[in-house]
TrEMBL record:
Protein name, as recorded: RING-type domain-containing protein
SUPFAM superfamilies linked: RING/U-box (SSF57850)
Nuclease among keywords: no
Lineage: Eukaryota, Metazoa, Chordata, Craniata, Vertebrata
Any one GO molecular function term: zinc ion binding
Residue ranges annotated for the RING-type domain, each copy included: 16-58
Keywords assigned: Metal-binding, Zinc, Zinc-finger
Species for this entry: Sparus aurata (Gilthead sea bream)
InterPro entries noted in UniProt: TRIM/RBCC, Znf_RING, Znf_RING/FYVE/PHD, Znf_RING_CS
């Protein structure tokens, strides 16, 4: 069950707090929070007469958006692996968090939950 909690945390970390989807073109603000580039621009355009601030912590910040290439790569890997789940016959973890194979049998994986169930992403 600890694995299921870890998966929920991973999915939460890869989700934009504005659109509640996996990040698309993630950017980081001066405060350290991440958003989809389009989402943060739309938030700021909706409040054009106010100072720019982070929608999450409300700290004032400049409109300088820094792309986060590492986060972008992780999200894209998760997207590509979307079809990799136990329901499709690929071994890994079942929905209760029990390994279908001994952990040593399949090396290192990142596990996450999507609409298809519990999925695995091999780390290379």
């Amino acid at each position: 069950m600890a694995e299921a909690h870890a998966l929920e945390e991973l999915q939460s970390e890869l989700t934009c707090p504005v659109c509640l989807e996996l990040f698309r073109d993630p950017v980081i603000l001066e405060c350290g929070h991440h958003f989809c580039q389009v989402c943060i621009i739309q938030c700021w355009e909706a409040k054009a007469d106010e100072l720019s601030s982070c929608p999450k912590c409300r700290k004032s910040c400049g409109r300088k958006l820094r792309p986060n290439s590492l986060l972008c790569n992780v999200v894209e890997s998760v997207r590509r692996a979307g079809g990799m789940n136990t329901a499709s016959g690929i071994t890994g973890w079942d929905l209760e968090g029990t390994p279908c194979l001994p952990p040593a049998a399949f090396g290192y994986f990142v596990f996450y939950r999507n609409s298809a169930g519990l999925c695995e992403l091999p780390c290379t």
